[in-house]
Please model this.
Amino acid sequence: MEMKKWLATVGAASVLFGSLLAGCSGGEKAEQTNGGGKAGEQVEVTLAGWGGNPTEQKLLKQTLDDFEKKYPNIKVKYEVIADQYMDVIKTRLAGGQGPDVFYLDAFEAPALIETGALEPLDKYVTDDFDINDFEKPMLDAFKGKDGKIYGFPKDYSTLALFYNKKMFEEAGVEVPRTWDELREVAKKLTKGKQVYGFGVAPELARLYYIAESKGGKVVTDNKASFADPKVVEALQPIVDMHVKDKSAAQPNEVGATWGGEMFGQGKAAMVIEGNWAIPFLQETFPNLEFGTAEIPTINGKKTTMAYTVAYVMNKDSKKKEAAWKLIEYLTGKEGMKTWTSKGYALPTRKSVAAELGFDKDPLRAPLVAGASYATVWQNGTNLPIITNNFNNQFVSAFLGERPLAEALKEAQKTANSEIQSK
Model:
């Protein structure tokens, strides 16, 4: 997507195209002092994110406080953008009012990198930062087509199989290791409409790795290609578990809002969720006995999804050296250890995960194990359009309202029509 076309997507901000280009030419030289200003001079760096639960906010505050103690001449102004995060960020970047450092989800990264609004970070990196310590799929998610790194991932989650230990024991079944086993176990765990063997999130963000497990591609050359018969074949068992086996359901069919709640309420014996479900279940359903396992293999291969967020730098920042110091600390071993210490997020540095014991933790180890082979939730600049159309039609097939092949064919056609008209 060209810079001009991107600016047009943020409405009135498009009139600022000229000023943005002018702004991009300034501030290229990184400041050489400790904080980005003259020696001893106080520098304020703005950091924007979308917030989190109270515990996460407390952890972030602690991390930022530790940073300010280490770099007393740098003050961090943290701003929470609660609604329409990316729209706000884009508008502010277009108007030359963007934060110095901000969160960027891997899903949104390709499009924003392509605009030229982000500062490449390679030139700031020193040997002691140890890039090789990052889980490779998470780091690669923030590389541009030019091979440069535009962000360092602050945390991530993969997906794992969550299972109800009591239900498994009562049914006399083992934790499934293959997808075929999962389908059979789900049948045995199902009790009419009171308890489903498997809770499903029928959306592309959760099904992408399954969709491509037979060799088909969801996206090809930045266009939708999920009507591929191989994709249909891969996803058909999910539909069949709901329509034929009656052993699977989506959360809203049992009055729940998401898979973790459905599982916690005992309305699903198994769900596939991320690290975020662990503290939720422990706090909301303290008496629930559950375990986790790596997602059952498909065609003999291990696979899962990964969702990751990076700290990135505004190319127009006038405080780049100080901004880098902040990114370096937050994604370095010390800052990352503090931020991820309570297990609300998983550290993208392998050494930090090992130091905190997450790689051996009974509940988090399967999530950590999946990091090295995970498919990161991103694929080109048009994935938002592709995702919306997939989700709109897949649900109709999942509910048995129409054949899956027919639903995905229509969704693909609509998605590519929208992409063509951009």
